[in-house]
Design a protein that fits this description.
The complex is a heterodimer.
Chain A lengths: L5 E6 L3 H13 L2 E6 L2 H10 L4 E5 L7 H10 L6 E5 L4 H9 L4 E4 L4 H15 L7 E4 L2 E4 L4 E4 L2 E3 L3 H12 L4 E3 H8 L10 H14 L7 E4 L3 E4 L4
Parallel strand pairs in A: 1-2, 1-3, 3-4, 4-5
Antiparallel strand pairs in A: 6-7, 7-8, 8-9, 10-12, 11-12
Helix pairs in contact in A: 2-3
Chain B lengths: L1 H7 L1 H68 L6 E6 L5 E4 L13 E6 L12 E8 L5 E7 L1 H53 L13 H50 L4 H33 L7 E4 H18 L3 E6 L4 E4 L1 H18 L5 E9 L2 E8 L31 H11 L3 E6 L4 E8 L14
Parallel strand pairs in B: 7-9
Antiparallel strand pairs in B: 1-2, 1-5, 3-4, 4-5, 6-8, 9-10, 10-12, 11-12
Classes of the chains: A alpha/beta, B alpha+beta.
Chain lengths: 230, 469
C-alpha cells in the first residue's frame, strides 16, 4: 500500500449505486469523495488532486462525457473510468474519444470495477522497468521471452507469454476477462463464449501443472488472478 | 361528403389549373383563327372594290365625265352587279349619277376608305345593311365612290365567332366534368384505402384492402400495401416469438436462483454452503446478463449505425487470430483446428464484429462438431469477393432447419440440452448483413460448411458495402 491514501472521486447520481461504490472503494483502501451531479463533479475534480475518478455516463445536469471533455480542456488529466448503462462499442469508443481512459458497462462485478480502477491508478504511478518479473517461484524473462519455475523452463506460445506477463504485471489483482481480451487481442467486447477461460486454462496447465502450488486462480464470474501463496 | 372531398382534393385543384392554362391557350388560338379569317374575307372585298374603282378611273380617263356616267348606269343596270354601289357627285358632294341617293356624311374628304350604313340603300330591308366603299376626287373636282354591300361577309365572320366561342365553352364544361369524375374516382379509391388503414389502427392487423380485379395502378397499390401488411404481421409474430423465448430463457435461470435463495433463507447460516450457493447464483445471473448483452448487441448491429466506423481490415489475419485463440478449446475436445488462409484478404468492416462472428462459427464447429473431429477455417479471395468458410465434419444441420438457425433463440432439437442461448448464429447473420456479406450453409458430407462472402473494398471504401446482399 502506498504511504499516502489514494483519493478517488466518484461522480454518480443514483444514490444506492453511489453508496455501494463508496462503501466498496473505501474498504479497498481508497479515500472516496462523492459528487452527485456533473457540476459538483466538475468543481471537485478541478479543485483537488485525485488519483482516479469514476463518472456515470448519464447525469441529471451535464452529460458524463461533457464533464470529461471540460476537465481535459482545463488541463486536468486525472484518469477517468466511465460507467454506463448504455454499453456496447460505439458508445465505448465515443467515451474514450471524449477523453475517458476506460469504460465499464452496468451491471458490473465489483471485482472488475476494482481491477480497472487499480489499473488506472497504476498508470499515474511510475513504472519500474524490470527485465525479470517474479511471482513465487515463477520467473518471466522479458528480454529472452522465457518462463521458468524453480529453474525448469516452461514452453509458451508468444500469445500465451503475453497473457502470463499481463497477469504477472497485475500480480494480486483480479484481471477481468474483458481486460485480457482488450489488452492482448485488442478486442473491445465481452466474449459471448467461454473462450478466454479455455485459453487461460491451457496457460495454467502449462504453468501450474506438476508444481508445488498453483499460481493462477480463476475468480468466478470475473476473471483471473495470479498470486503466490502466503 | 364525397363531392366536398372531391372539390378539396389536390388532384382536382391540379386539374383546374391545367384546364385554366389549356383554356387560355385554346382561346388565344381561336381568337387568332377568327381574326385571320375575318381579315381575309374583308381583304378580298376590299380588293374587288379597288379593282372596280381602277376600271372606272380608266373609263373616266378615256371618255371623261360623260363616259363615266354612262358606264355607271350600265353597271347599275346589269343584274350581276347586285350589291355594288356607285356614286358620282359634284364637288359639293351632290349626287350626279349612281345608285346611292346621298353622299355618306362619314366619307367626306378627297379620298379614302370607309364603312357605313345608308338608309336609302334597300329601304325594304329589315335592317340597314353594312356597306364598304372607297372614294376619290377626280381631276375635274367631282367625287367618285365605289363600294359593295358586305353584310353577308360580316354575318359569316360573326358565325365563325359564335361557333368558336361555343366550342371553347363546351371544352371548359367537358374538361370540368372530366376532372370531377376522375378526381371522384381517385378520391373514392383513396377513401377505401383510408378506411382500411383506420380499421387496422383501431382493430388490428387482420384487415386487408379489397382489390377490384382491374389490375390497374390502384389494384397494384392495394396489393403492395396488403403484402406490406402481411410482412408487418409476420414480423410482429416473430417479435412475439422472441419475446416468448426471452421470457422462457429468463424464467429458467431466475426460477433456479429464486429456489436457491429460498432454500438458503430457510437454512442455517453456514459459510461453506452459503459460499457455493452465492457462487452458483452469480453464475446464473451472469448467464442472464450475457443473454441480454447478446440481444442488445444483435439489435445494435442490426440498427447499422456502426458502419461509419468501418475500416479496411485483413480478414485472413482475423481468422488466424481466432484459430489461435480457439486452439486450446479444440485441444480440450481433441479436435484438430487449422487455418488455411491467403496472406491478405481485405474487407471493409469492423474488426471486433468480424472477430466475434468468426469466433462464434468456430465455437459452434468445435462444440457441435465430432469429438476428435477436424475444423478448418478457410479465407481466400475469389472472383471479386472475399470468402471465409468454417468447415467441420460433425453431424451438420438438417436441410429444413438451415434457414431457421439464424433466427434468434433457435436451437436444434438435439442441442437443447447443451449450454448456449441460440443467439450465436443470429449474431453472425447480423454481422454478415451490415458488412453486405452473403451467408450460406452447405452440407459438407459429413459435416457443415458455413461460408460468408464479403464484397471487396472499393477504392473509395464504402460504395460496395451493400453490393452483395
Amino acid at each position: 500500500m502506498l504511504a499516502r491514501r489514494r483519493r478517488i472521486l466518484v461522480i454518480e447520481d443514483d444514490l444506492e449505486t453511489a453508496e455501494q461504490l463508496v462503501d466498496f472503494l473505501s474498504t479497498s483502501g481508497y479515500q472516496v469523495d462523492l459528487a452527485c451531479d456533473g457540476n459538483d463533479g466538475l468543481s471537485r475534480a478541478s479543485s483537488a488532486d485525485y488519483t482516479v475518478m469514476t463518472i456515470d455516463r448519464m447525469l441529471p445536469d451535464i452529460d458524463g462525457l461533457a464533464v470529461i471533455r471540460h476537465l481535459r480542456e482545463g488541463g486536468i488529466v486525472t484518469p477517468a473510468l466511465i460507467i454506463s448503462a448504455l454499453g456496447e462499442i460505439d458508445d465505448r469508443v465515443r467515451g474514450l474519444r471524449a477523453g475517458g481512459d476506460d469504460y465499464l458497462v452496468k451491471p458490473f462485478a465489483y471485482a472488475e470495477l476494482l481491477a480497472r480502477v487499480e489499473a488506472l491508478a497504476r498508470r499515474s504511478a511510475t513504472v519500474v522497468k524490470d527485465t525479470v518479473l517474479r511471482v513465487g517461484d515463477l520467473e518471466l524473462d522479458l528480454v529472452s521471452r522465457t518462463v521458468s519455475r524453480r529453474g525448469r523452463e516452461i514452453e509458451l506460445l508468444p500469445r500465451e507469454f503475453q497473457v502470463l506477463e499481463y497477469l504477472v504485471r497485475n500480480e494480486g489483482q483480479v484481471v477481468p476477462r474483458a481486460m485480457l481480451l482488450q489488452h492482448i487481442w485488442d478486442l473491445h467486447f465481452d466474449p459471448t463464449t467461454n473462450i478466454i477461460d479455455v485459453y487461460v486454462g491451457r496457460v495454467r496447465r502449462k504453468v501450474d501443472g506438476q508444481q508445488a502450488y498453483p499460481l493462477i486462480h480463476t475468480v468466478r464470474g470475473v476473471g483471473f488472478c495470479i498470486r503466490a501463496p502466503r | 361528403m364525397l363531392l366536398a372531398k372531391t372539390l378539396r382534393s389536390s388532384t382536382f385543384k391540379l386539374a383546374l389549373i391545367w384546364i385554366g392554362i389549356f383554356g387560355a391557350l385554346v382561346l388565344a388560338l381561336l381568337t387568332y383563327v377568327y381574326w385571320s379569317t375575318a381579315s381575309y374575307v374583308h381583304g378580298r372585298a376590299d380588293r374587288a372594290i379597288a379593282e372596280e374603282r381602277t376600271i372606272l378611273r380608266k373609263v373616266y380617263d378615256r371618255t371623261a365625265r360623260d363616259g363615266l356616267i354612262a358606264a355607271i348606269k350600265d353597271r347599275i343596270a346589269d343584274e350581276r352587279s347586285e350589291g355594288d354601289i356607285y356614286l358620282l357627285a359634284d364637288p359639293s358632294f351632290a349626287p350626279v349619277a349612281g345608285n346611292l341617293k346621298v353622299w355618306p356624311s362619314t366619307l367626306k374628304g378627297s379620298n379614302g376608305w370607309g364603312s357605313f350604313r345608308a338608309r336609302e340603300w334597300k329601304p325594304d330591308a329589315a335592317d340597314r345593311p353594312l356597306l364598304r366603299a372607297t372614294f376619290d376626287t377626280l381631276p375635274d373636282g367631282d367625287h367618285l365612290l365605289v363600294g359593295k354591300e358586305i353584310d353577308d361577309l360580316d354575318e359569316f365572320a360573326q358565325k365563325i365567332k359564335t361557333a368558336l366561342l361555343f366550342g371553347v365553352a363546351l371544352m371548359f364544361v367537358l374538361a370540368g366534368a372530366a376532372s370531377v369524375s376522375v378526381t371522384r374516382r381517385t378520391v373514392g379509391r383513396i377513401e377505401a384505402i383510408n378506411a382500411t388503414s383506420q380499421g387496422i389502427m383501431q382493430s388490428g392487423l387482420g384487415k386487408r384492402i379489397l382489390l377490384r380485379g382491374t389490375r390497374d395502378e390502384w389494384d397494384q397499390l392495394a396489393e403492395n400495401l396488403n403484402s406490406m401488411l402481411d410482412r408487418i404481421e409476420a414480423l410482429m409474430a416473430e417479435v412475439k416469438q422472441v419475446t416468448d423465448n426471452v421470457a422462457h430463457d429468463l424464467r429458467t435461470p431466475l426460477t433456479r436462483v429464486r429456489a436457491r435463495l429460498e432454500k438458503a433463507y430457510n437454512h442455517q447460516r453456514d459459510s461453506n454452503y452459503d459460499q457455493s450457493l452465492i457462487g452458483n447464483t452469480i453464475a446464473d445471473v451472469d448467464a442472464v446478463l450475457r443473454m441480454f448483452s447478446s440481444l442488445t448487441r444483435i439489435s445494435q448491429i442490426e440498427a447499422g449505425d456502426r458502419t461509419s466506423a468501418f475500416r479496411t481490415v485483413n480478414l485472413a489475419e482475423i481468422a488466424s487470430e481466432v484459430v489461435e485463440l480457439f486452439d486450446a478449446a479444440a485441444e480440450d475436445k481433441r479436435a484438430h483446428l487449422n487455418a488455411v488462409v491467403d496472406q491478405r484478404v481485405l474487407v471493409t468492416g469492423d474488426r471486433d464484429l468480424l472477430f466475434d462472428a468468426v469466433a462464434n462459427l468456430v465455437d459452434n464447429a468445435i462444440k457441435y462438431g465430432r469429438e476428435a473431429g477436424r475444423v478448418t477455417v478457410e479465407v481466400s479471395q475469389d472472383d471479386g469477393v472475399a470468402v471465409m468458410s468454417v468447415i467441420d465434419d460433425g453431424p451438420g444441420i438438417p436441410d429444413n432447419e438451415c434457414k431457421q438457425v439464424f433466427k434468434r433463440f433457435y436451437r436444434l432439437e438435439r442441442s437443447r440440452r447443451t449450454p448456449g442461448n441460440g443467439l450465436g448464429l443470429s449474431l453472425v447473420a447480423a454481422v454478415a448483413r451490415i458488412h453486405g456479406a452473403h451467408i450460406e450453409l452447405m452440407d459438407n458430407r459429413p459435416g457443415l460448411k458455413c461460408t460468408l462472402r464479403f464484397p471487396l473494398p472499393t477504392r473509395s471504401g464504402f460504395e460496395n458495402r451493400n453490393g452483395l446482399t
